[in-house]
From TrEMBL:
Main localisation: membrane
Name of the protein described by the UniProt record: Membrane protein
InterPro entries linked to this entry: MMPL_dom, Mycobact_MmpL
Keyword check for Transmembrane helix: yes
Source species taxonomy: Bacteria, Bacillati, Actinomycetota, Actinomycetes, Mycobacteriales
Family label: Belongs to the resistance-nodulation-cell division (RND) (TC 2.A.6) family. MmpL subfamily.
Length: 305
């Protein structure tokens, strides 16, 4: 009877000290068990200040579903220690799901920095070459459009049609290649357009497209289908990277450079080269007026005679 009373008293004191009704009780004799002491070293630190819990997943922890469990586990752990002596305790999660979550968050953050820095650097380089913030912004905008379209189409094909998850490495690798290639093709067109601008805005665009269209289009198609050959790799991630780059290059070569860039430059007209004056365009009317004046004076002289 005395032992039962002592155990009940100790249980009540332990439960009261925990300040939590979601707990369990171990009698003091359990801590003297050799098997329990052997297992205790795996879950408690030598100083007794840290404890380890083993959490199992219902499914693959390396998938998106497994990664989504991390926030729920942290929330449940914070709620469990709230209002208890362990409220100020630090809770850490390790394992496959937590590691993949950290990699995903770190990659997303670094990728945003890389994209913003690359677009800003491309804008500065284009600004130094074209001397026009409008033309530079159009080139950067078309490159960003090609990136977004390529990744969106790749997600549509792989995840919604083929029902295969897109690897997280696809986006960084595709951005690196397409930022380097997409801006070059558009810059070649704009540079040629600047050389032909003396013939007029529309005429200059027609000439620049005729002189650079075949070469740039051929180069873009060759590069695109070369990247597309990666689809036959045994590694799915390699095929996904090659497919995404191929889609982006085809979209940039056949749609952006062939239609969108000339259309935007033609619609903006003189504003495309702002604030640079178009010398060839300003001198042409003067030459025509001088010729008309000369012809008119000659006709007037003939009438006077």
């Amino acid at each position: 009877m005395e032992d039962m009373t002592r155990n009940s008293t100790q249980m009540g004191q332990a439960l009261d000290g925990s300040k939590n009704d979601d707990s369990f009780y171990l009698p003091p004799e359990a801590f003297q068990n050799p098997d329990f002491q052997r297992g205790l070293t795996l879950f408690l630190s030598p100083d007794g200040a840290s404890a380890r819990f083993v959490i199992t997943h219902m499914g693959d922890p390396a998938t998106a579903e497994g990664i989504s469990h991390i926030d729920k586990i942290m929330l449940a752990a914070d709620e469990a220690v709230k209002g208890t002596p362990l409220q100020a305790a630090h809770i850490y999660l390790a394992g496959t799901a937590a590691t993949f979550k950290d990699i995903h968050e770190g990659t997303t953050y670094d990728l945003m920095i890389v994209v913003v820095a690359a677009l800003c650097l491309i804008f500065i380089i284009m600004l130094g070459i074209t001397r026009s913030p409008v033309a530079s912004a159009v080139i950067v905008g078309t490159v960003a459009l090609s990136l977004g379209s390529a990744f969106g189409l790749s997600v549509l094909i792989w995840q919604h049609i083929l029902h295969m998850p897109l690897h997280w490495l696809v986006l960084p690798m595709a951005i690196i290649v397409m930022l380097a290639v997409g801006s070059d093709y558009n810059l070649l067109l704009v540079a040629r357009f600047r050389e032909e601008i003396g013939a007029g805005l529309k005429t200059g665009m027609i000439r620049s497209m005729a002189s650079t269209g075949r070469v740039v289009t051929t180069a873009g198609l060759v590069f695109a289908f070369t990247m597309g050959s990666m689809l036959f790799s045994d590694l799915r991630v390699v095929g996904q990277i090659g497919t995404t780059i191929m889609i982006g290059l085809l979209f940039d070569t056949l749609v952006v450079r062939s239609f969108m860039m000339p259309a935007v430059a033609t619609l903006l007209g003189r504003w495309f080269w702002w604030p640079r004056p178009l010398a060839g365009q300003t001198r042409k009317p003067q030459m025509v007026s001088q010729r008309l004046t000369g012809v008119g004076s000659a006709k007037g002289a003939a009438l006077l005679q």
